[in-house]
Amino acid sequence: MSFRIGQRVVCVNVEFSQEPTWRTAVTVLPVLGFMYTIRSMRAVDDVIGLCFEEMVHPFRHFAEGYVEPAFDSRRFRPLATTRIDIFEKLLAPVERVAHRRPLELV
């Protein structure tokens, strides 16, 4: 799954890490079903870590350096965005143009 900065996501799993250093660094946990905006991202081994606009945590020393604790991207799903103009086009009346074919003699 691909993520990008500025993208809106929803929390789908709240089984976050129990690692003590990470747990003490995180002051607020995401809530199941709530929406968040990706502020920054970083790769740690095979996991993508996400930080959100809606919550900022103090930097701490982790294996990858002095960074803000991030949340495992596998706990989030991108929000599907639907533009209203798509539905408005479906409701708009369709112009019908009458095309007359010349009569054929049989």
Primary descriptors:
106 residues, 5-stranded antiparallel beta sheet, two-stranded antiparallel ribbon
Q: Describe the sheet with the most strands.
A: 5 strands, antiparallel
Task: Specify Rg, calculated over alpha carbons.
Answer: 25 Å
Give helix and strand order, one letter per element, not per position.
Answer: EHEEEEEEH
The end-to-end distance, rounded to whole angstroms, is 63 Å
Strand content: 25-35%
> What's the number of structural domains?
1
Q: Could you give the order of strands across the largest sheet?
A: 6-3-2-1-7
What proportion of the residues is helical, as a percent range?
Answer: 10-25%
Oligomeric state: single chain
Extract low-pLDDT stretches.
Answer: none
Helix- and strand-based class? Answer: alpha+beta
Helical region count? 2
What is the number of beta strands?
A: 7
Overall mean pLDDT score?
Answer: 88
* 3D shape: rod-shaped
